Amino acid sequence: MPAKITKKGDFTLPGEAGYEALTLKLAERWGADAIRDCDGTVLSDQIILADYHIYSTICLVRADNEWAKANRDKLQQNYLMSNPVVAEKDTVEIDLLNGYFRDQFEVNTNDDPKKWWQVFDRTTGQEVSKDQWTFNSAKGIVIVDQPEKWHKYTVNFLAYRIWEAISMYNHITNDWGDREHQMPVDPVYPETQKFILKYLQKWLDMHPKTRIVRFTSLFYNFAWFWGDPSIQKFRYADWGSYEMTVSPLAMAQFAEAKGYELTSEDFVNKGAYCSSHNVPSKRLLDWMDFMNAFVVEFGRRCIDLVHDAGKKAYMFYDDHWVGTEPWGERYRNMGFDGLIKCVFNAFETRLCAGVQGVKTKELRLHPYLFPTGLQGEPTFMEGGDPARDARRFWANIRRGLLRVPIDRIGLGGYLHLVEDFPDFVNTIEQITREFRTLKQLHINGSPYTAPLKVAVLTAWGKRRSWVYVGHFIHGMALYEITESLAGLPVEVSFISFDDILEQGIPVNTDVMINAGKAGTAWSGGEHWKNKKIIEAITEWVACGGGFIGIGEPSACQYSSQYFQLAHLLGVDREIGLTSNIMKLDITLSEGEHFILEDMNGDIDFGKDTENIFILGKETLALSEKNGSAKIAVNPFGKGQSIYLSGFKFTPENTRLLHRSLFWAAGKHKEYGPWTCSNVRTDCAFYPKVMKLVVINNSDTAEITKIIDADEKSIEVSLKPHGIQIIDL
Amino acid sequence: MPAKITKKGDFTLPGEAGYEALTLKLAERWGADAIRDCDGTVLSDQIILADYHIYSTICLVRADNEWAKANRDKLQQNYLMSNPVVAEKDTVEIDLLNGYFRDQFEVNTNDDPKKWWQVFDRTTGQEVSKDQWTFNSAKGIVIVDQPEKWHKYTVNFLAYRIWEAISMYNHITNDWGDREHQMPVDPVYPETQKFILKYLQKWLDMHPKTRIVRFTSLFYNFAWFWGDPSIQKFRYADWGSYEMTVSPLAMAQFAEAKGYELTSEDFVNKGAYCSSHNVPSKRLLDWMDFMNAFVVEFGRRCIDLVHDAGKKAYMFYDDHWVGTEPWGERYRNMGFDGLIKCVFNAFETRLCAGVQGVKTKELRLHPYLFPTGLQGEPTFMEGGDPARDARRFWANIRRGLLRVPIDRIGLGGYLHLVEDFPDFVNTIEQITREFRTLKQLHINGSPYTAPLKVAVLTAWGKRRSWVYVGHFIHGMALYEITESLAGLPVEVSFISFDDILEQGIPVNTDVMINAGKAGTAWSGGEHWKNKKIIEAITEWVACGGGFIGIGEPSACQYSSQYFQLAHLLGVDREIGLTSNIMKLDITLSEGEHFILEDMNGDIDFGKDTENIFILGKETLALSEKNGSAKIAVNPFGKGQSIYLSGFKFTPENTRLLHRSLFWAAGKHKEYGPWTCSNVRTDCAFYPKVMKLVVINNSDTAEITKIIDADEKSIEVSLKPHGIQIIDL
Q1: Closest-CA residue in chain B for A568?
Q2: Could you give the count of Cα atoms lying within 13 Å of B50 in the half-sphere of its Cβ?
């Protein structure tokens, strides 16, 4: 039964007052069923009264600047660490905001510094006694008396944010001139909650035509500290971390709830803050849990108002998403009807699709209709090519869409910017059609997935499934791996060390992946000192499991090894502590190995982890560079391991990973059904409707052969970035 | 007064019985005044009775194999760590010598394993209780009962060495077939001492013609553990470490002398052993001190016999030099008349020349008259070019010889091998002439040295001056640096962290250098956690000192920084713990900096330490690669620091270092007198005799200009590897 391909619907268009004709023309052309406003645009009556669902964005914490100005003691806060100052005399003066963006931050002089702040000797790492320093609020400086000479000192202090970060970004990026700076209020205060609920109710009353209230997002932005513009624009950014949720009131409530007090240093963490890249402490996880409970509870009260007004509530899974934890247990209690994720890549598609407890999943496509992109590169301006960008992003996103269902797509920004880019308009039209086709296939049943269960082990586990800490970071091995995984026909889950300790390795796991740099949350840091972890994984591999380690898997200098699973991997890394211990010569194994069968030419992992040596003759090196193993495989008991010295998301490496999963699982004989001969192409087979989708991920024409379940081969020709749907 | 250039003398020739005519012909041609035997060669009467001083080699610990065979319980020993074995069942069996060369080692079954050995769970790093394991001496295995399943276990055990390492190397390298394996006896036993003294006396009596007794060397070889030849030839080698000095008797004596007991793990050190690359523990330094006292004391008794016999005693500063510590305080008490160092490089020249308390310094030149070199490369055989090798080594060595006096040079090996290499014979003739010329200049007074005092800071300090842990290791930054330093007209000393703690930074030090990988003895490891060190160096720089950090200087993740002197260097390294903290953009400073004035083209440090970021606007980046600083300079107080991301011994980098020393010292205006315009050339001015020596270090013809003390310039043309001596 051929799927009915709809030409309209499932598309959200950003409308723009003053460009009504354009708005309605493109709504028709792109088959929109909904029109939205954006931060910086409004919709006019002519648009609102046309026959479209109206999405209206709202960001409650920056909604009413008058209230914020009248309640500056209820602005959102965070801890900052001052720049270090070396003690050269009998006192040290530390200018707290030196190097920070003074338009973003203002020192909190309301809450007692002696109670909430800390001064550290960062030479020794010791806190300075509270009676040894004073705060001069007029000058915004802290003075340390009788410091240890030549040591360096920092202050952890509370700062109010006097310019809401996303609004600040939009303001500066789009040159909003002297438009008033919006300030973020903190819903932790009962007064703020009362104000917000009242404001929201009024807003709902005033937006009768709005069908969908899009929260952008809830209350707390990801961490984003800006710098003194004469020095550096940004100082710290982490899409997943909780620094911006802090206030003395919340910390007091935390102490009551959890039975112990946090300090400023729990958030400042020697200047590293609570970055998602770092292994979270139990204390940080407690704080996240506490904030999550609060955000879900108060968020629910807001969403209830939306529902009571007969509207739907969607959440934007970016910006102020901190505290919502869409992959957490509480998320379903929040009551959102939809979740919108801004995407460049397949892994973000999976991130959005995998959230439980929300009905509608929507992808906001890049590029945004802004003059410049996230890195400041030209987009809708001279030198930009937004159509090319859109095609490339779509090619990545589409890999994920073959595997998981998504309900809607859409755009954001200033619609009028597309006027000079007709190729972009055509490209989006093409994309909307493809999207509807793919959506229809999923409605009729899931695509074929190989009987292969992969668990990615990180310190975060499910909480940061698909390793979401921001947009794609090139060169971070685990990002590159998840992007490859996101388009493969295998089952993928993310587990933590605590999961293993509490529940063991999930039943039926075929392959475990651990990747990243030593000391990071991705590799696992000191979790690898826990013998229970070593025992569990070693036993599991001995019984047939497959372990794939990439970069510095299980790395943590401890006892006699650097890779704590060196005995499984068959390799370890020389970091300079055993330089004079001679290493075995690496002689590459002869004959082609299953995992390398589709590789052509040199293997390019981008950046290789160097100084990898093999431990014994059983370890088979498949690739090496300058005497360091790039790829090695090692048997252990009934299982086997694979080591890769790095990873970069390329067609060849994705195939290498695909084959590695099968080989590590001991299932390489089962590799074949519904795979493509050409690594630049992917396919998905939908058995219910007997349809085969084949996509070309590259910008060149490609020919590929698909192996079906009977080992028969189907040849397909594809245009650049093309797609073919074949009835079988 | 022109120096008298002698055509004879100061040269030691290796003679060879059966090649008497060749021996005497070459002795004449090369101007030898002494003829020596070698391990593997003897001198005949025809040679001995010719008019040359006779050098005879003796190695007391392998001198009499009959005595060794009759006293196998007095063979030398060492601790080995067995290969790790993962516990898969209720017991673990560990084959102790698995993977080791069974011709070199034999398990010591004489001393109680339960007293002297240790078994470790290397998964947790914990020792296994002694009643949990048993030793099966018949099988040479240890059995651990009820191990923790899936953990890995190793045994630290004592092994006798049944083949003396240097003799073994010579035997295997030169194919000695079934010649008996010489075994090393340990002079720690009173019986061995008695035997050795008696043997030596008899030997002296039997060698009336011997004028110089060359000890090769004393009692304990540097550590050299060989592997099962089917797996790997060598397992561990360290030219400066003490693993081969161990025995239960010595350990018992140590406990008595120092008041505490060492364990096997003090030597095995998690399998890293006591490598010179690792920061020595206080316990290791105590052991070295204890052994040094013993070696000096018993060595002195041997040397006294030599002197009583009217002969001179020379020591070979390689092979069995461990325990003698030529740079230590006790060395002068030993009474050696001469010290012979085998050299490839300038730093080894400085190493030999700098030893106090011994009159005659002699260099043994490479290549040895062996078919193959130290790395197994062809030398005196087809494919070898020993003349080219000799010229290259000499060009390096000569840089050092310009700075410091050496008394003699010589060769070693099988003389007959030179017969097929007439170019080598010519080259050595040329080298002997040059050597005598240079020696003569030093006799008339020291060359000009700039008023610039450099202290190289390592965990070893003076003990491992010139970073002697073996032959030149390419790519180890500090080796490459010392090789550059060895030819520069500045004063160089080596200091330790303990020196700074005990005596402060040496008075009048202009520049301090710290270089190497984090965690190594060269960089300093955990010494950098000591606030007294940070205070001392910071204050010293604030008062005008110059700090040069290379690679990972002051590196040790601690408190909020990786480089503990980041505040001086103006840079730090991102190792993955603060990835989301944004770094300042590196914009190269405009205009040429003093330290780069003689650089042409790209700066090549070989391997760069990556991810180096600058801390503030005061830090001036002079070179960068992929956004990581390669060269940065930073002011602090009255002083300044320079950071280099790596170092390779090249003419350009040597000049960069030379200029950096002056700039860091704040003396760049004093740079100039007696420097060469051409970086491939060096010069030395001998003010007493008003002679200027100019050398060409390269194998191409070069023209260079020398700036004299009055800033006048002298142009000189040089042949490949040429030398010119100019009267001023």
Answers
A1: B86
A2: 21
Alpha-helical segments (H) within B273-339: 282-308
- On whether the CB atoms of residues A498 and A536 are closer than 8 A, the answer is no
Q: Across the beta sheet with A691-696, what order do the strands follow? A: A681-686, A691-696, A723-727
Q: What is the pTM of this model?
A: 0.95
Tokens of B508: 């009048």
Whether chain A has a CB inside 8 Å of the CB on B606: the answer is no
Residue B577 maps to a domain: yes
A contacts of B560 (beta carbons < 8 Å): 84, 120, 122, 125, 154, 270-272
Pairing mode of beta strands B118-121, B126-127: antiparallel
One domain, residues A356 and A413: yes
Residue B142 tokens, joined: 């240890």
> What are the distances in angstroms from CA B20 to CA A373, A420, B28, B174, B426?
84, 95, 12, 21, 20
* Domain-embedded: residue A145: no
| CA nearest neighbour of A554 among A522, A580, A584, A593 | A522
Average pLDDT across each block of 10 residues of chain A; the chain has 728 residues. List them in order: 64 95 96 90 90 94 96 98 97 98 98 98 98 97 98 98 95 91 98 98 96 95 96 94 98 98 98 96 98 98 98 96 97 97 95 96 96 89 96 97 98 95 97 96 94 97 88 73 97 98 97 97 97 98 98 97 98 94 90 92 94 96 96 98 97 98 97 96 97 97 95 96 96
Residues A435 and A565 in one domain: no
**Structural domain boundaries enclosing B566:** 453-670
B559–A235 CB contact, under 8 Å? no
C-alpha distances in Å from residue A439, one per residue of A398, A405, A431: 11, 6, 12
User: Does the residue B166 lie in any domain?
Assistant: no
Cβ contact B535–A236 (<8 Å)? no
Last residue in a domain, options A391, A421, A444: A444
- Domain end, chosen from B391, B419, B444, is at B444
A336 touches chain B (CB under 8 A): no
ipTM of the predicted assembly exceeds 0.90: yes
Q: How many domains does chain B have?
A: 3
Helix or strand holding residue B524 (H, E): none
- Is residue B500 within a helix (H) or strand (E), and if so which, with residue range? helix B497-503
Contact A567 B538 (CB under 8 A): no
Residue of A nearest to B616 (CA): A231
* A270 touching B (Cβ < 8 Å): yes
Same domain, B431 and B467: no
A100 closest CA partner among A228, A277, A247? A228
Determine the Cα–Cα distance for residues A554 and A567; give it in Å rounded to an integer.
Answer: 11
Number of C-beta neighbours around residue B576 at 10 A: 18
Q: Say if the Cβ atoms of A582 and B234 lie within 8 Å.
A: yes
**Among the listed residues B725, B718, B714, the one whose alpha carbon sits nearest the alpha carbon of residue B689:** B725
Residues facing residue A707 across a β-bridge: A675, A713
Angle in degrees, CA B706, B707, B711, rounded to 5: 160
What sign does the dihedral A103-A107-A109-A110 (CA atoms) show?
positive
Classify residue B91: in a domain, yes or no. Answer: no
Nearest to A559 among B125, B542, B617 (CB): B125
**Residues of B whose CB is below 8 A from A277:** 576-577, 579-580
Point out the residues of A that are catalytic. 319
Integer Cα distance of B256 and B250 in angstroms = 10
Our CA-based measurement puts residue A382 at a distance from the nearest CA of chain B, in whole angstroms, of: 25
Neighbours of A139 (CB within 10 A): 11
* Residue A503 CB neighbour total at 10 angstroms: 10
The answer to whether the Cβ–Cβ distance between B534 and A637 falls below 8 Å is: no
Query: Helix H segments across B140-208?
Result: 165-173, 190-206
